[in-house]
Design brief:
Blueprint (H helix, E strand, L loop, with lengths): L2 H21 L8 H69 L2
Helix pairs in contact: 1-2
Length: 102
C-alpha cells in the first residue's frame, strides 16, 4: 500500500474505508486495492482490540490490588478486634475477682 492510500484510509477511518468498500470504489470483484483496504481495516481493528484488552487487563490488575489491600485491612481489623475481646475478658475477670473478694 502506498503512503497516499494509507493517509487516505487514516483520514476517513475504519467506517469510511468500509463504506468505500461497500460502495464499490475498489471495484466490484476481487482487486489488489480492495484487498489492501480490507487488510487495513483488519489491522486497525486488531490495534483497537489490543488497546481495549490492555485497558481491561489494567482495570483487572487495579481491582486485584484494591482487593488485596482490602483483605490486608480486614485482617488487621480482625487482629485488633480479637485483642479488644481478650482485654475485655481480662478486665471482666478482674472485676469478678474483686467483687467476689469483698
Amino acid at each position: 500500500m502506498n503512503e497516499r492510500t494509507r493517509v487516505h484510509f487514516e483520514t476517513i477511518g475504519i467506517e469510511g474505508v468500509l463504506s468505500e468498500i461497500a460502495e464499490g470504489k475498489f471495484g466490484a470483484g476481487p482487486s489488489l486495492a480492495k484487498s489492501e483496504a480490507e487488510a487495513w481495516v483488519a489491522a486497525e481493528r486488531a490495534k483497537h482490540d489490543g488497546a481495549a484488552l490492555s485497558r481491561k487487563e489494567a482495570r483487572e490488575e487495579e481491582t486485584l490490588a484494591i482487593a488485596r489491600k482490602a483483605l490486608s485491612n480486614a485482617q488487621r481489623a480482625t487482629i485488633i478486634a480479637i485483642f479488644a475481646v481478650v482485654v475485655s475478658i481480662a478486665l471482666a475477670a478482674q472485676r469478678i475477682v474483686e467483687w467476689l473478694s469483698r
